[in-house]
TrEMBL record:
Lineage of the organism: Bacteria, Bacillati, Bacillota, Bacilli, Bacillales
Keyword Nucleotide-binding: no
InterPro entries linked to this entry: Polyketide_cyclase/dehydratase (IPR019587), START-like_dom_sf (IPR023393)
GO biological process: cell division
Keywords assigned: Cell cycle, Cell division
The name this protein goes by in its record: Cell division protein
Length: 160
Protein backbone atom coordinates (compact mmCIF):
# COMPACT_ATOMS: atom_id res chain seq x y z
CA UNK A 1 0.00 0.00 0.00
CA UNK A 2 2.32 2.77 -1.20
CA UNK A 3 1.83 6.35 -0.09
CA UNK A 4 3.24 9.03 -2.36
CA UNK A 5 3.54 12.59 -1.13
CA UNK A 6 4.76 15.48 -3.26
CA UNK A 7 5.10 19.15 -2.22
CA UNK A 8 5.18 21.88 -4.88
CA UNK A 9 5.63 25.59 -4.14
CA UNK A 10 3.59 27.75 -6.52
CA UNK A 11 3.77 31.55 -6.81
CA UNK A 12 -0.02 31.93 -6.84
CA UNK A 13 -2.85 32.15 -4.31
CA UNK A 14 -4.35 29.04 -2.72
CA UNK A 15 -7.66 29.89 -4.43
CA UNK A 16 -6.06 29.91 -7.88
CA UNK A 17 -4.14 26.68 -7.23
CA UNK A 18 -7.22 24.98 -5.76
CA UNK A 19 -9.43 25.91 -8.70
CA UNK A 20 -6.84 24.91 -11.30
CA UNK A 21 -6.32 21.54 -9.59
CA UNK A 22 -10.04 20.69 -9.87
CA UNK A 23 -10.52 22.07 -13.38
CA UNK A 24 -11.15 19.26 -15.89
CA UNK A 25 -9.63 21.09 -18.87
CA UNK A 26 -6.50 21.98 -16.89
CA UNK A 27 -6.23 18.36 -15.77
CA UNK A 28 -6.17 17.21 -19.40
CA UNK A 29 -3.47 19.80 -20.21
CA UNK A 30 -1.31 18.73 -17.28
CA UNK A 31 -1.59 15.04 -18.23
CA UNK A 32 -1.31 15.39 -22.00
CA UNK A 33 1.70 13.02 -22.03
CA UNK A 34 -0.75 10.19 -21.22
CA UNK A 35 -3.41 11.44 -23.68
CA UNK A 36 -5.76 11.78 -20.71
CA UNK A 37 -9.27 13.01 -21.44
CA UNK A 38 -12.59 13.14 -19.61
CA UNK A 39 -15.07 10.71 -21.17
CA UNK A 40 -17.82 10.53 -18.55
CA UNK A 41 -19.33 12.35 -15.60
CA UNK A 42 -18.13 15.95 -15.32
CA UNK A 43 -16.18 16.57 -18.53
CA UNK A 44 -15.66 20.36 -18.36
CA UNK A 45 -15.22 23.08 -15.76
CA UNK A 46 -14.65 22.91 -12.02
CA UNK A 47 -15.45 19.75 -10.12
CA UNK A 48 -17.37 20.03 -6.86
CA UNK A 49 -17.94 17.71 -3.91
CA UNK A 50 -19.95 14.70 -5.07
CA UNK A 51 -18.88 15.03 -8.71
CA UNK A 52 -17.39 12.09 -10.59
CA UNK A 53 -15.29 11.99 -13.74
CA UNK A 54 -14.19 9.09 -15.89
CA UNK A 55 -10.72 9.56 -17.33
CA UNK A 56 -9.37 7.68 -20.30
CA UNK A 57 -5.58 7.63 -20.71
CA UNK A 58 -2.65 5.55 -21.85
CA UNK A 59 -0.54 4.38 -18.89
CA UNK A 60 2.32 1.93 -19.26
CA UNK A 61 1.33 1.43 -22.90
CA UNK A 62 -2.24 0.38 -22.08
CA UNK A 63 -5.39 2.45 -22.72
CA UNK A 64 -7.33 2.54 -19.45
CA UNK A 65 -10.39 4.11 -17.88
CA UNK A 66 -10.64 5.24 -14.31
CA UNK A 67 -13.56 6.86 -12.51
CA UNK A 68 -12.86 9.11 -9.54
CA UNK A 69 -15.26 10.94 -7.23
CA UNK A 70 -14.65 14.00 -5.07
CA UNK A 71 -15.76 12.96 -1.60
CA UNK A 72 -14.51 15.87 0.49
CA UNK A 73 -13.90 19.54 -0.25
CA UNK A 74 -12.94 22.59 1.79
CA UNK A 75 -12.21 25.44 -0.64
CA UNK A 76 -9.44 26.60 -0.94
CA UNK A 77 -7.66 24.34 1.56
CA UNK A 78 -8.21 20.78 0.33
CA UNK A 79 -10.19 18.24 -1.61
CA UNK A 80 -10.14 14.46 -1.70
CA UNK A 81 -10.91 12.21 -4.63
CA UNK A 82 -11.24 8.44 -4.50
CA UNK A 83 -11.25 5.83 -7.21
CA UNK A 84 -14.72 4.42 -7.84
CA UNK A 85 -13.72 2.15 -10.72
CA UNK A 86 -10.40 1.49 -12.42
CA UNK A 87 -7.12 -0.39 -12.54
CA UNK A 88 -6.19 0.04 -8.87
CA UNK A 89 -7.78 -1.94 -6.09
CA UNK A 90 -8.34 1.48 -4.49
CA UNK A 91 -6.87 4.95 -4.10
CA UNK A 92 -7.40 8.09 -2.05
CA UNK A 93 -5.84 11.28 -3.38
CA UNK A 94 -5.79 14.23 -0.99
CA UNK A 95 -4.90 17.62 -2.46
CA UNK A 96 -4.00 20.35 0.06
CA UNK A 97 -3.13 24.01 -0.48
CA UNK A 98 -1.35 25.96 2.25
CA UNK A 99 -0.71 29.66 1.91
CA UNK A 100 2.94 30.58 2.40
CA UNK A 101 4.75 33.86 1.92
CA UNK A 102 4.80 34.55 -1.80
CA UNK A 103 2.49 31.73 -2.80
CA UNK A 104 1.07 28.32 -1.97
CA UNK A 105 2.45 24.92 -1.07
CA UNK A 106 0.38 22.35 -2.95
CA UNK A 107 0.63 18.84 -1.53
CA UNK A 108 -0.45 15.67 -3.31
CA UNK A 109 -0.95 12.80 -0.87
CA UNK A 110 -1.72 9.68 -2.91
CA UNK A 111 -2.43 6.41 -1.09
CA UNK A 112 -3.17 3.46 -3.34
CA UNK A 113 -3.51 -0.30 -3.28
CA UNK A 114 -2.62 -2.28 -6.37
CA UNK A 115 -4.83 -5.12 -7.56
CA UNK A 116 -3.79 -8.78 -7.66
CA UNK A 117 -2.37 -9.17 -4.15
CA UNK A 118 1.28 -10.27 -4.17
CA UNK A 119 1.63 -9.67 -7.91
CA UNK A 120 0.44 -6.09 -7.41
CA UNK A 121 2.86 -5.54 -4.53
CA UNK A 122 5.68 -6.87 -6.71
CA UNK A 123 4.63 -4.46 -9.49
CA UNK A 124 4.71 -1.61 -6.94
CA UNK A 125 8.24 -2.52 -5.95
CA UNK A 126 9.48 -3.07 -9.53
CA UNK A 127 7.95 -0.06 -11.32
CA UNK A 128 4.47 1.15 -10.37
CA UNK A 129 5.30 3.32 -7.35
CA UNK A 130 8.04 5.09 -9.32
CA UNK A 131 5.72 5.51 -12.31
CA UNK A 132 2.95 7.01 -10.15
CA UNK A 133 5.41 9.30 -8.36
CA UNK A 134 6.72 10.59 -11.69
CA UNK A 135 3.14 11.05 -12.97
CA UNK A 136 2.12 13.13 -9.91
CA UNK A 137 5.31 15.23 -9.94
CA UNK A 138 5.01 15.94 -13.66
CA UNK A 139 1.36 16.96 -13.26
CA UNK A 140 2.20 19.23 -10.27
CA UNK A 141 4.97 20.97 -12.21
CA UNK A 142 2.66 21.50 -15.20
CA UNK A 143 -0.04 22.91 -12.90
CA UNK A 144 2.59 25.21 -11.33
CA UNK A 145 3.53 26.51 -14.77
CA UNK A 146 -0.12 27.32 -15.57
CA UNK A 147 -0.82 28.85 -12.13
CA UNK A 148 2.17 31.16 -12.31
CA UNK A 149 1.16 32.65 -15.67
CA UNK A 150 -0.29 36.17 -15.44
CA UNK A 151 -4.05 36.36 -15.83
CA UNK A 152 -6.92 38.79 -15.36
CA UNK A 153 -8.95 37.85 -12.28
CA UNK A 154 -12.57 37.63 -13.40
CA UNK A 155 -14.02 36.70 -16.77
CA UNK A 156 -10.71 36.45 -18.59
CA UNK A 157 -10.33 34.15 -21.55
CA UNK A 158 -6.71 33.72 -20.38
CA UNK A 159 -7.84 32.11 -17.15
CA UNK A 160 -7.34 28.36 -17.22
Amino acid sequence: MPIIEHHEFIKASPERCFDLARNVEVHTKTTSHTKERAVGGVTTGLMEKGDSVTWEAVHLGVRQRLTAKIVEMDRPRMFVDVMVKGAFHSFVHTHTFEQKEGGTVMVDHFHYTSPLGMIGRLADWLFLEKYMTNFLVRRAKALKEIAERPYIEEGSSDRE
